[in-house]
Specification:
This protein has 139 residues and is mostly beta strands. Helices cover 8% and strands 68% of the residues. It has 1 helix and 8 strands, in the order E-E-H-E-E-E-E-E-E. Strands 1, 2, 3, 4, 5, 6, 7 and 8 form an 8-stranded mixed β-sheet that branches.
Amino acid sequence: MKYQRFEQTIIVRMDKGEDIVEQVRNVALKEKIKLASISALGAINEFTVGVFKTKEKKYYANEFKGDFEIVSLTGTINTMNDEYYSHMHLSAGNDQGQVFGGHLNKAIVSATCEMVIQIINGEVDRYFDEEVGLNLLKL
């Protein structure tokens, strides 16, 4: 991975074999990011995304392998209990034009991933909400 910072914007290039989730964490910790938005595109050959079933308050994961293009990767960086926290969603399409997606758990770059991290001045922490079963923004 390589990246360059331009004031409040970071441009990231992730390379073949790198896990997008891990690399976002690496940049955020190195740059001491407390609040930011993320968007990206690229190519991946392995990814795991989940869907949260609200009635069960449980995530179900789906794993995919093959050639996929990132149609959309969007998310946030913030904190929970004043520690790094990220929340990302991914949609990826195969060679048939089928798109799969959900809450991003893992994505391995097959060619490249181009990401923009837009830093926001401020901090927003998260807390676990028992009723919903998720870590919500503390606003």
